[in-house]
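Please predict the structure of the following assembly.
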Amino acid sequence: MPIIDTDVHESFSSLQDLVPYLPDPYKGWIAQGAWRGIPQPFCYTSPGNGNRADVVTEDGAPVASDYDLMRRQVLDEYDLTYAVLTGYFYPTMLKLQYGLGTALAAAYNDYCAEHWLAKDERFIGSIQIFARDPQAAAREIDRMSDHPQMRQVMLPVVDDIAYGDPAYRPIFEAADRNEIMISFHHTTHAQGPYGMGLHYMERRALLPISLMPQVISLIVNGVFDNFPNLRFMVLEGGFSWLPHVMWRLDRDYRMGRVEVPWIKKLPSTHCRERLKLSTQPTEDISAENWIKLIELMGTDEILVFSTDYPHFDFDSPNAAIPRGLPDDLREKIFWKNAAAFYDIDVPLAAASIAAE
Amino acid sequence: MARHTVCRLKDLPVGKIVPANAGRARIVLSRTETGEVKAFAGRCPHQGAHLEFGCISDLTQAERPNEVSVDKSCSVLRCPWHGFEFSLATGQAVVADDRGHFLKLRRYNVEIDGDDVVVVT
Ligand code: FES
């Protein structure tokens, strides 16, 4: 069966990898070590310190900075048809020095195009932006959208941005005019309503609560209505919450339409038509419960598969999606829904194997 | 079919909800800008709120976020509990549920007889 893995994290080996792509004065700043990157505000407790402990490069370089290792461990190992690179360096986490943030995003995109996308045609790229300067982010989207492998804009979920705010509209306008889609992924700064909790386990359990508000914000503030051709993907944020959000928003819309009459469809309809959620990290629920949840969502075209390689909560294509699910549903989760989202052809050979 | 004189026309200010009894039925009346009198059953079909505590307002509309205007030609009755909007013209809810079903207020025919407002149940 073809597999589109919608969440694979690639990385540079150090910020220095971006130096060749940075303009002055930022090139000099980064080259001389004036900034050490974005601090991680907690300690991972898994054997691999947040990554799969078997993702180790021979020279001890940071994980996911090695294409050959990634190819061996995930692209070839699972015969992925496509892998969507979603990055690990999100300049939006920088809360000041907007010029630097914008330059870092552009440098990262150029680095990614040369060191990752060019190496494997199975890669689909994400345009990284510095979202705090939406006009500059829009220019970066315009600049990178011509790259044939770039199929989405990555909107990192931090602790102070809800992307439905009208201030971020230039980002969606740019995605719309360039006909590329929008994905959301949490960052190490994403948090729940009362912060990150006091333990990593608590923080991880809170991650869906950092992503649900993005869906709510986009719909309530009219992004779905204003950009009918855009589609939205929430990565690594769980999916069992979606029926609740749909029901809640529908009820709230019936009660509060008077305030937001720019919403022209029931929020649940918007979700069913335009939203995708990635399956990783799955929650070890039974096949029966998967089916119940999908029934509650009202469509089997929302879920898309992802591994989250190289992270410790990796989902194996061989085991994470229960084999007890009907074949046509597994096909949708593993590739058809993502192919529709990215509007990509699945190679004939892979698709015909699936049909056999 | 029964005809009930429920109030005087002068007791119905435009844009207000006025409760009345039509036989044993509690109803609500409202007079529109155009002078028409509308009569509906007094309880909300959603969860049974007494609509006499609701309000009449113009329908809000917008094509762009945060650019809200009102459609003066379309008034809605808003339920006092959850605020669902019902068209004053038809009694139909403005928003359908997720099965595409529109709640509907039960509507009564109204006749004006001199200054009397007569509701037919
Ligand atoms: S009871 Fe009227 S809207 Fe709920």
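Chain B has a mean pLDDT of 96. Chain B is about 0% helix and 45% strand.
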